[in-house]
Specification:
This protein has 4 helices and 6 strands.
Length: 136
């Protein structure tokens, strides 16, 4: 597990093929750089088609500068075949920021709770329409 206290935790569950990301607080560019390194470290041994669960419930709205930096990070592997990405966020503004960073080759779902997101990820990808159970 990679962690920066007060900002993020990133871990990979090999059995579930799930990259679990939890974010907190208000970020600056240094946090984005450290986050990028943490993602790279955790995904080094991950299955390339793993799913991602991103819980942003305790994250504040980012500045335009940080959102732009995260957008560049999100598109680093835009041509890769990836699993689905479930984003947990009760904030409409955070969902809007996340949607602007979406990779077009990936299926996203937006959820109110982590359990809803996990349930969606547990269904076979071809039987769950993108965002079918997602609020947002």
């Amino acid at each position: 597990m990679q962690k920066l206290e007060g900002f993020f935790e990133v871990s990979y569950d090999r059995d579930r093929k799930l990259l679990h990301i939890t974010t907190y607080g208000f970020w600056n560019l240094d946090v984005v750089d450290r986050f990028a390194r943490a993602i790279a470290e955790e995904t080094r041994a991950a299955d390339p088609s793993c799913d991602v669960l991103a819980n942003t419930c305790r994250t504040e709205i980012h500045s335009a500068e940080v959102s732009e930096a995260l957008s560049r990070l999100s598109y680093t592997h835009k041509d890769a075949e990836t699993g689905r990405i479930a984003v947990v966020s009760p904030s409409v503004l955070l969902r809007m920021q996340t949607k602007r960073m979406q990779n077009m080759n990936t299926t996203y779902g937006y959820f109110e709770t982590e359990q809803e997101a996990l349930d969606w990820l547990a269904t076979p990808a071809d039987s769950s329409a993108p965002q079918a159970r997602a609020a947002g």
